[in-house]
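Postdoc handover notes: sequence design on the structure in folder B. Input tokens:
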């Protein structure tokens, strides 16, 4: 509808407004479940509380936890799991996928648990374009029998910068 507007400047403004957020809602249902993909800034207090996230799968790609996400540890009502990886040169080595693969079953189980409890889940990584996307793709393929090409195409329509690395997709 917006693309059919007579006012392209409004379309550009709204597109920038939606797609410049640190996370976008990529999956949801009518009963409350929401799964969002984003960068780690989406887990900072202001954005995360405004969006009402009550579950977090935080992936720290470069070996350092974002200090602005520590507020999550203090809230007992929040479901949280986080992993810190030392991923270097993601596209040229398979080390990144190996780091993820070692923990993938726990991540998939966590996402499944959030779905069953109809949580508002944020899955984030450093930039929100590869690692977090790959983990959610794995969940959809393994637990929902959705083809990864179909899911990836859907994600790219909502979160424009989605670009899983070659080593992650090859897994």
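Designed sequence:
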């Amino acid at each position: 509808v917006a693309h059919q507007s007579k006012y392209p400047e409004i379309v550009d403004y709204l597109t920038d407004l939606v797609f410049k957020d640190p996370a976008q809602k990529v999956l949801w249902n009518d009963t409350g479940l929401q799964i969002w993909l984003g960068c780690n800034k989406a887990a900072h207090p202001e954005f995360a509380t405004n969006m009402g996230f009550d579950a977090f799968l935080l992936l720290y790609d470069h070996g350092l936890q974002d200090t602005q996400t520590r507020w999550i540890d203090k809230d007992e009502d929040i479901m949280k799991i986080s992993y810190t990886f030392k991923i270097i040169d993601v596209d040229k080595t398979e080390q990144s996928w190996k780091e993820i693969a070692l923990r993938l079953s726990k991540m998939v189980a966590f996402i499944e648990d959030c779905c069953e409890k109809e949580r508002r889940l944020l899955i984030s990584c450093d930039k929100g374009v590869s690692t977090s996307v790959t983990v959610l793709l794995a969940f959809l393929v393994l637990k929902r029998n959705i083809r990864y090409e179909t899911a990836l195409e859907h994600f790219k329509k909502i979160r424009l910068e989605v670009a899983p690395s070659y080593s992650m997709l090859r897994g």
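Context for whoever picks this up: The longest helix spans residues 131-144. Don't rerun without checking with the PI first.
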